[in-house]
Recover the amino acids of this structure.
């Protein structure tokens, strides 16, 4: 069960990253549209900016599917039905902020 929770936590972290990337690409698209409107960029840059969005949206959908599957697996491990997966929330796993290295290493 711990592995499933860890995997679910990782999937949520990947989703956060993909969501952030999508927001960034949408902002870039807005800027490129403005630049094309005042003829600072060409249609090529606009096409490239538009092309990035569907791939990121598809990645988000795949991650959401992975999260749903992990939730179903956790519900099954708990001996509950598939409806229980709807009530599983994002795990809050404790991570150390930084790895402490020893002050002196043996030679």
């Amino acid at each position: 069960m711990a592995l499933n929770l860890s995997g679910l936590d990782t999937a949520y972290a990947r989703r956060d990253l993909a969501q952030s990337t999508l927001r960034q690409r949408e902002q870039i698209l807005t800027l490129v549209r403005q630049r094309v409107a005042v003829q600072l960029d060409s249609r090529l840059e606009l096409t490239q900016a538009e092309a990035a969005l569907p791939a990121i949206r598809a990645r988000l959908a795949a991650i959401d599917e992975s999260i749903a599957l992990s939730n179903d697996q956790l519900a099954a491990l708990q001996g509950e039905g598939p409806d229980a997966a709807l009530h599983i929330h994002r795990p809050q796993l404790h991570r150390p902020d930084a790895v402490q290295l020893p002050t002196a290493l043996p030679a």
Q: What stands out?
A: Residues 6 and 93 are 8 Å apart (CA to CA). Residues 2-87 form one domain.
